[in-house]
Amino acid sequence: MKSSWTRRAALVASAVAALATVAACTGDPGDGGTDAATDGTITIHVAIDPGLEQDSLDAINTRIEQFTEANPDIAVETQEYNWTGTTFAAELAGGTLPDVFTIPFTDGRGLIERGQIADISALVAELPYAGDFNPNVAQAGQAPDGAMWAVPIAAYGQGLHYNRTLFTEAGLDPDAPPTTWAEVREAAAAITEATGEAGYAQMTSTNTGGWIMTTLAYALGGRTEQVDGETVTATIDTPEMTEVLEMVQAMRWEDNSMGANFLYDWGTINQDFAAGRIGMHVSGGGNYGSLFTQNAMNPDDYGVTILPLSDSADAGVLGGGTLAAVRADADEATAAAALKWIDFYYMEKLTNEEAAVADAEALNAAGQPVGAPQLPIFDRATYDESQTWVAEFINVPVDQMAPYTDGIFDQPLIPEPAHSTQEIYALLDPVIQAVLTDENADIAALLAQAETDAQALLDAS
After folding, report:
1. Model confidence over 194-205: pLDDT tens digits?
2. Structural domains of the chain, ranges and CATH numbers in brackets
3. Buried b (16+ CB within 10 A) or exposed e, 380-400
4. Angle, to 10 degrees, between the axis of helix 54-70 and the axis of helix 288-295?
5. Range in 7-16, 99-108, 143-152, 306-315 with the lowest mean pLDDT
6. Cβ(428)–Cβ(214) under 8 Å?
7. DSSP 8-state class, residue 375
8. What is the pLDDT of residue 6?
9. Is residue 47 within a helix (H) or strand (E), and if so which, with residue range?
């Protein structure tokens, strides 16, 4: 597959592509629109994650140079941006977001239905690989009629990340991570007893508490909503969710194996995990790149495995991903320039061998991770082929990731709940916080109230 805009030679370093973004404007970001400069140049602002290491920043700048050399009518500037559930709506309403930005799969349909992102589907349809996306992935960025308004750039299945060094210090075998939740609990207690660190930690804030609670309920065979035609019913007060909270409650109050921080979100749990303060936690299976580039994770410490699943026929792994979207007020020229960048920066290395090799070679030379596990945007065969293209440049501890990569494609992948997703995740944050901070928390009452509140949200949407 070849891109209509590809620059085949001398492509260089890309940084954490799944978490970088593009924005388009000539004035300050959020000025409500883009006009071409007097010389005809269009400026697009490329959003980068806060706190990147200098090597990552250098890689992005080099990548921008290559893009602008091939597209002299497009200027690229950087702007820090990171999607956070509790601030995104305000940023969107306030016009402070980049004109092109990344969003989780869960936000795609709602933004499309409300017209809060640009309809770039005609441009996307011209891409030579537009019809090759994994259907389960593509739907996250599609309108009800199948038109793709946002481009899938990364997909994930949840995994259990663990610190191999803490495992060893606790007398555990880092090459044989837990395969059941009972074993997770036992390992967490052993780590805390031997090292004094949190054996297991869990996200609880900025909507991530609900995200991880839903993940664990899926692993036990539960769901947080039931859809029957146009009727959506909240299913939070269930035996599976009760089991999740009872397990966490026991680890916190009986085993004392969950440390002392009960307000983690994605960024802060990454920080403490990379620093060796956490033995295990649940997050996206492809998270190694962020841990390494943003948190200086020691590769020797890192391990990841698949989530333990119950014997239920409905048990599965929560899967999601990242979409690149264009701001609704971007003009036609800006939208076209933005999609050129999306194709160049995110997609080219997935669809073209020469681009993939050049990207991997440059990342490797810059000391950036190559080969961290991820789920395929396209089909499994395309993913496997792309891995052979870059095999000589892979520099991540693949053997330490084998428990995940050997098993993830065999686990049922369950999409995140599709209705009022982030709002319901937010409702669940205080539930997990209460269980972790109040020894006498009434799980039944908490779940009953959460289900009532969730149903009210669903009914109003």
Report:
1. 999 999 999 999
2. 17-156+320-400 (3.40.190.10), 157-319+403-460 (3.40.190.10)
3. eebbeebbebbeebebbbeeb
4. 110
5. 7-16
6. yes
7. B
8. 31
9. strand 42-48
